[in-house]
Predict the structure.
Amino acid sequence: METKETTELFKDIGKTNLLKLFEINQIINSTLDITEVLERVLKTASDVLNSEASSIILIEKNANYLAFKTVTGKKANEIKNFKIKAGQGIAGWVINEGKPTISNNVQEDKRWFGDISKKLNYPTRSIICAPIKIRGKIIGVIEVINNKSGNFDDKDLSLLVAFTNQAAIAIENARLHNEMGIEVKNLKTQIPQSTKMIGSGNKMKAVHELINTVAGTDSTILIRGESGTGKELAARMIHIKSPRKHHPFICINCSALPETLLESELFGHEKGAFTGAVARKIGRFELCAKGTIFLDEIGTLSPHIQVKLLRVLQEKEFERVGGTETIKSEARIIAATNENLEKAIEEGRFREDLYYRVKVIELYMPPLREHKEDIPDLLTHLIEEQTKSMGKVITSIEPRAMDILLSYNWHGNIRELKNTVERAMVLGTGKILKAEDLPAEIRTKRTPITTDWMLKSAEKNHIEKAVQYTTGNKSKAAKLLGISRNRLDRKVKEYNIKIC
């Protein structure tokens, strides 16, 4: 709704000049190039006010100087980046007083600082100046010099105030864009260049197939599974295989932060929104506008944040904490939980409508005990990873150690397996990972193996690695494995192993 002041301002400006303001507004909304926008704002202001020259003067960070940042007129190249002390001249007065002013005879105006005119040999007759304000704080001024037709008037002042408002919007947009650009760049560096999910058994094949199917869509996904099964890795794979791969992937552990901090982290906050909010903060949904946001442990969200998240999912919009501006977000949401959400709904801890919004597509990450056939490949991968970081080489795993690793139930899943491998490599000696290198709880808490398929899978894996290591030399491979050449030939034929 228009205020009385707005109506009067429009009357003073007139239809022609109002169209100029709309034109500037379109430029601001079409580009984030601050230099281009400010030059257009200043040039239009100078033309409309029929002036010889104009400047955008900004307060330096240390607040001790005023710097001419954008300039028009004959002496533009000479005055650009020129500095004066804070408080000097009519520009300094406007900044200190916080209000616009007109001076149609600067020679008689005590506020005027004439040194610049003298240095540039540029006669100054009249000045009109207005402050640039961002959220109530003055950051500089627009100063217009020498009306070609005579004197500046109150209508000119109203028009200049309108132009300074446009300049303020442009500067603020550019500042926020720069902040977001820095954070997005930092977030992108957190995305690994390659993401690999190990597993070729039936359970993991199903996971790979579903990831490939959903990656190209924008559907919300709920990843379920026990702790340590690789839920975050699955989310990263979906992101990297999706059209969003060049945009940020942001991971938030919903259980790691208290409600107020989590709300600020997700949606951002305005300055003064709460104690300690000394500046505006851009939230993850805003930073991740075209990327993927991974909400781990979504079952721990408070009712208040559940409501805000539901709105993002339904309307794709939100407000910062303490703010009124509605912000759009096209971020894809992937959620994860190891909690029984159905039970949480029954107990009133989780919203049913949010549950159905999150669970558009459900991906189940099986516990390691359900796909033990993948353990040999996982061990090879984890040993290679640790070899790169430690510089310690493990060429094989003792059969008894493999038997123990295959028969253990891995309640901590792949995360526990990874920690076990790291410990064994740190404490073990030699190039063979032995049973005694494994933790006591792994050696004692295991279930009997009732079939031999796991041992056969491990044996095939070792033979393949040995053949690969010796570049297809069967004699060397047999020696490395500690078996005869004839036995190796039989195993190669039994497991259909290709020799390079």
User: Anything to note?
Assistant: The two ends are 77 Å apart (CA to CA). The chain has 21 helices and 15 strands. The chain has four domains: 4-178, 202-366, 367-450, 451-500.
